Here is the input.
Amino acid sequence: MALLWRTARAFSAAASPVAAPAAIKAIGAHENFARVIFDNQTSADYHYFWLLHNCDESRHPQTNEKTLCSSKVPLDIKAERVEVSPCGQHATFTWSKPVESITKSVFSTAWLQQHAYALNRKVNAPAVALSKVLIDCTLTKLAPSALLAECRKRLETDGAVIVRGAGVSLEQIIENFAHGGLHVIPTHFGDIEDLRTDNTTNKNNDQLGYTNAAVELHTDQPFIAKPPHFQMLYCMRPAESGGENTLVDARAIAQHLRETDRHAYDLLRTVPVRFHRVQREFRSLHVGPIIEVNAAGVLTGVRSSYFTMDPHQLPFADMEQYYRAYTKFVELTKTPAFQYHALLQSGDFLAYDNHTMLHARTSFTGSRWLRGVYFDVR
Here is the structure.
């Protein structure tokens, strides 16, 4: 969440609108940039590393030449504090660590406006709220038909739903979803997965989901041409400890990456990845990018599965850049603003859009038992 510094100055009615540059009204401090809001209803965004590199404190006192090479400025530099002068004509940034003995940088509003490179930039703020996807039936009683209709609605609008204390069986959910046009999609595991360490009911259970190990964020079935659209996890029995589920809005992350690091976004959108599932009795391969878009360039889905990726085969000059782009994507998935968390109890369930949401679980102890079902529109 951005921090906001405001000026303490009083606005003068007699001030000429053209006599001086627009004053600074407020500054919002974001993760890697500052948003300067001027009193003429405009704003500009500046990367912290760019500000430090270009500050007057990096100039020689006699010749006024720059003495700081940009390569010496850490790209992850942050502002520990931002102060706006009472008249709104200057902003002072105190840096999180000194760079070449520079601890503070002062900028005039005139300079900031003259050198603005991102005026009035619109960015979709990364933020999720558990209240958007949580239905707590212990607080709000809903008839089974109304509850499941609400589940389908939230899957369509928010990409996920978490239901506590529903009092409905998995069979009731499957039947109701079928009435709404969502049908069970069989996979190489069968119709329903019994996700438990002592599984004997499913085919091809030689994979992480049937262990008590942690499973990091991923989408399911990226190694087939058309992965199932929705998945549900229904809790029959919770773990003694651990086993928390996490959902992450991958579509929001892709959009955020597109707006903040276009190069990384384009690499993940264009470079094909070999998603390759190899089990004792099942094999499948799909080659395609992590971020999928349609002919109009609109994002349609995300595929991500670290445990089914074959070694990347890229030109030597491209390999490091791709690893950087993928690492940037994964680091964003760790941002709390994109995450939902749920520790399911018996009778609770969650469902999510497998084309737009990543999911994970922590390691656990005990005889945890979840049942998994894939749905799609027929």
Notes: The longest helix spans residues 316-333. The helical segments are 48-54, 109-114, 130-133, 144-158, 170-179, 250-260, 262-270, 316-333. The first strand starts at residue 3 and ends at 6.
